[in-house]
Amino acid sequence: MKKIAVVLCFSLAAVSVSAENWVQTSAIPEKKYYAYVDTDSISTQGNYKQAFAKYIIIEQDTFIISLISYDCKSNPKRNKTTYIARYNLKGDTVASGVPTGTAAEFKIAIPGSYGKKEIDFVCGF
């Protein structure tokens, strides 16, 4: 497991260097929440699509960048977080790691949700 985490971290570093094209997929301005997908990072990995997503939560003085896997072929569509890093608004890393347990499992996108908008965006790219 430790080996997988190390390989994943190096893979993330290589991909994040080219991550430059953040496109907004949803926003809740009254809650100061904004979600983006890096279109330069969208790729197909086996049966799934994969991309970096960024979530800015201004009221919590934080933003999150996650590597997300999208199951575009399932009905309903699903996604799961493969790696997550939380930063303060200055850009300092607060926490990072590979999700475990139920946090690492695929979750169904609920129709009308912001997560569904993100999945539809990535799957349609």
Question: How would you summarize this macromolecular structure in one to three sentences?
Answer:
This protein is of the alpha+beta class and 125 residues long. The protein has two helices and eight strands.
Features:
single chain; 125 residues; alpha+beta; 8-stranded antiparallel β-sheet; 21% helix; disordered N terminus
- The fraction of residues assigned to DSSP E strands is 35-45%
Look at the helices and sheets and give the structural class: alpha+beta
The largest sheet is: 8 strands, antiparallel
Cα-atom radius of gyration: 14 Å
Unreliable parts: 1-17
Instruction: Work out the helicity level.
Output: 10-25%
Number of helices: 2
Question: What's the rounded overall pLDDT mean?
Answer: 86
Q: List how many beta strands DSSP finds.
A: 8
- Order of SSEs, N→C? HEEEEEEEEH
N→C terminal distance: 32 Å
Shape: globular
Description:
A hairpin with a 2-residue loop joins strand 3 and strand 4 (48-57). The chain has two helices and eight strands, in the order H-E-E-E-E-E-E-E-E-H. Strands 1, 2, 3, 4, 5, 6, 7 and 8 form an eight-stranded antiparallel β-sheet that branches. With 125 residues, it is an alpha+beta fold. The model is unreliable at 1-17 (pLDDT under 50). Helices cover 21% and strands 43% of the residues.
